[in-house]
Amino acid sequence: MSAPLDAAQNTGIPFDGFESLDPETYAELRRLAARRMANQTKGFSLQPTVLVHEAWLKLSVKNEQWKDRPHFLAAAAIAMRHILIDHARRRTALRHGGGVVRCELPNLGDLATPDPDASILVIDTALTALEAVDPVLAKLVVAKYFGGLTNQEVAQALGVGERSVERMWASAKVWLFRWIKQNQS
Amino acid sequence: MKPNDDNEIFQDALELQEGSERERYLRNACAEDQALRARVDALLDDHASACVMFEKTEAALMLPNHAVNLFGLHLGEMIGPYKIEKILGEGGSGIVYEAEQLTPVRRKVALKILKLGMDTRRVIARFEAERQVLAMLEHPNIAHVYDAGATEAGRPYFVMELVGGLRITEYCQRNNVPLPDRLRLMLQVFAAVQHAHQKGIIHRDLKPSNLLVSVIDGLPIPKVIDFGIAKAMAGQLVDEPDYTAAFQFLGTPAYMSPEQLAGSAADIDTRSDIYSLGIVLYELIAGRTPFANTDSTGSEFITLRRRVLEETPPRPSIIEALTLPATKTWRNRLLSSRTQNDLDWITLKALEKESDRRYQTVRELGRDIERYLENKPINARPPSQWYRFKKTVQRNVLASTAIGVAIAALVGGFTTSTMLYLKAVSAERKQTLLRAEAEEREHVTKAAIFLMQNQPAEADAEVERLGGFLTQPSLEATNVFRSLAIWSALQGHWKKSALRLLSLSKVNRFDAADQTDNATRELLPIAPTLVESGEFDLYQEFRRNLVKRLGTTQNPIAAEHLLKVALQIPIAPSSVNTLTPVALVAEKSLEPERPPRDRIEAWRCAVLGLWHYRTGRFAEASAWCDRSLLFKDAEQTRQQYARLVRAMALRKTGRQDEAHSEIENADSVITDYFSRPLEYERNGVWHDWLGARLLLREAKQLLKTGSKK
């Protein structure tokens, strides 16, 4: 007869969160998150932890088990993209006094007055277009640009040679730039 | 080898340095193809512009250090009637914002949003349950908690009085506050905590970040914040079987009492707060906490936990002398060594592992500090010689005894040394035992950690290695054995469960075995598990010991428990008589003839029914069972228990048919319970089901022997 203890004491733990996350993955996620945090100067900060939690939520909400390290890296980068874009939207909304953000494409000629948040949102839109045309190249942008992965990690996540990463990245940047130029109002 | 398209030429060119090198390559690669050259040049130009565009977004790729967005909050946002204005800080359990309350009153408040891992509904329900009491907290050194709620994202938040100022430790450090003034600050904190304790409110999370000092009219005023919050969150932290995860996000456990770290929620009381205050006091005297600050994750947490549970903190004055540079001026260096010792004893008394040995109220602790400040004798005493000896042995440094004897022989002459020799021999024996016990305690600690990680099988394997040397009362061992006994039982491993229960009875705090109602309750599962697993000899021995120890109790609950345990199976007539006094105690506790008022009295009636049955007074047995059955509720175990005793009594008086149908009914109810996965409680506790099944077997046997006649 077997009645597992947790069934007997099933009081319902709210998140099926971190207990299923092994310490190595946690550390890795934390390391990735730290690269996306400003002012990581003074020793221990809880901030990356917070970001990890958020990333973990995004990852686990998708309920997608990663099979291996490349898969994990790619998934973490996607989570990071969502977080950064959410953040940019929110900041932009705030600056415009709340409400919904209209994601207008900036005039590239006006890049002299750069608004990083607006630009990143535009790049995100362009990236969605790229996904339809060249999924691998799009994946590279997510991993390198949003995920902040090193070339070595990007190479791992995409299963390409490390040297190809910079070459593909150059092409991707041009593609995105041209798409934005063509589509701006 | 020629690259074959625009893209490759472009990528190759980028790898070369801009200028003549790249130019040479391009000329070569494009040869005479002007159109190709133009396309590649365009790519290179656009690449340069693209790089500018991407560089400009860099700022957006870095999240600000305060991660507002991550909690779904931004400045200016409204949470209920509160407008978020700025971030005040971040702790282990959440982020605190300054907010403006707009209705019904306009005021500045602090709004604390809890982090991930909290069950919002439960946190808020717990807070609501205590809101009335919290409202009664009126003290100048306590910050009000006004409200609790949930954000749109579902995270719980608390609204509190906005308190400025620095952590008490930081305030003292920055201002070089002299020791007596540090103590006076703590006296104010004590008064606040005492006020709350008198209202029955325990803080549970006293630490410097919850003790803020601000200067008002030139006077430093400490305020205790977060009253009621730790309790609302407590369900997430200690009640859950799996609370390591929760602990990891709690911030430092350096201020938690041993009972909190041992995970025994039931043992947390006002004296847990006294322990935490003791740590803050220690830090203010010595400059650091006794077991050093570590971050609360992983192995460091486990190390700290073990040290808090087992090590005696070093005297604060020693730490102070070791760590603080002589130039530090805050310490009043004119203190005599006597008063310095006094302060050590006061602090260490607040930090005793067993809460019974600590100051029992914050007021007592405060009075000793006052006496110290007035240079009067204090109440705290250095630990006794024997106590210190024991602690020394526990740290395995008793090798010194033999050396001590040798030295004494040299200087003290023959008589003393012989005496010391004799002492040392028995000490050596004691030492072996204590060392074995210390080793076993290691296994128990490991088991406790496995249990925290929800790995009962691994915990059980640790406990399996114990050899029975563990005899000292121990909170940790009690928890481990209790958890594993239940775990084994619910898997149907009765014998293992019985063994764990026996271990439990050894390490449980037993000095007042019959003084509290709970002391004997833990004995109840032992009888049915031992009998069920066929350990009749162990059961007999257990019964004999118990009768010896509890046979003269005057506590009716202990008496009832003893009867229930001792009468589980038929008992020799000679032994049954030794139980007569306790049976009388149980019987006298009930008003004659009156139906039971609650389930406890109903149980007592049923047990008395069994007592009369075992002594051959069948009519009385039936009557007691009838009386027990007058109380109606869902507790099937008790009802079947009474029915089965009554059926056996009926059978003995020749009313075979009535007995038969009663037993058949009981059979179907009891079989049903055991046909499903075992639960700790389902219309009765597991061990009562086990006990009822044993009675059922006895009754069926009785029917069989009856039909043979």
How would you describe this structure to a colleague?
The complex is a heterodimer of chains A (185) and B (709). By secondary structure, chain A is an all-alpha fold. Helix content of chain A is 64%, strand content 0%. Chain A contains 8 helices and no strands. Chain A has helices at 5-8, 23-34, 47-61, 69-95, 116-133, 135-146, 151-158, 162-183. The radius of gyration of chain A is 19 Å and the shape is globular. The model of chain A is unreliable at 1-20, 39-46 and 98-103 (pLDDT under 50). Chain B is α+β, with helices and mostly antiparallel strands and 709 residues long. Chain B contains 30 helices and 9 strands. Chain B has helices spanning 6-15, 20-30, 34-56, 58-61, 120-135, 168-174, 179-198, 229-239, 244-248, 258-261, 270-286, 298-310, 316-323, 337-350, 362-373, 385-394, 400-452, 456-464, 475-490, 494-507, 526-532, 536-550, 556-566, 573-577, 580-588, 599-614, 618-629, 636-652, 656-675, 686-708, and strands at residues 78-79, 82-90, 94-101, 107-114, 145-150, 156-161, 166-167, 211-216, 219-224. Chain B has a 6-stranded antiparallel sheet, covered by helices on one side. In chain B, strands 7-8-9 form a 3-stranded antiparallel sheet. Mean pLDDT of chain B is 78; it is low at 66-72, 235-251, 294-298, 326-336 and 385-418. Chains A and B meet through helix 1, helix 3, helix 4, helix 5 and helix 8 of A and helix 1, helix 3, helix 4 and helix 19 of B.
Summarize the structure.
Chain A has 185 residues and is mostly helical. Helices cover 64% and strands 0% of the residues of chain A. Chain A has eight helices and no strands.
Rg calculated over all Cα atoms of chain B: 35 Å
Distance between the termini of chain A: 70 Å
**Shape of chain A from CA axes?**
globular
Shape of chain B: extended
Spans where pLDDT lies below 50 across 5 or more residues of chain A: 1-20, 39-46, 98-103
The quaternary organization reads as heterodimer
What is the straight-line distance between the termini of chain B? 110 Å
Major sheet summary line of chain B: 6 strands, antiparallel
- The average pLDDT value of chain A, as a whole number, equals 69
How much of the polypeptide of chain A forms β-strand, as a percent range? under 5%
Structural class of chain B comes to alpha+beta
Mean pLDDT of chain B: 78
The value of Rg of chain A in angstroms is 19 Å
Helix content of chain A: 55-70%
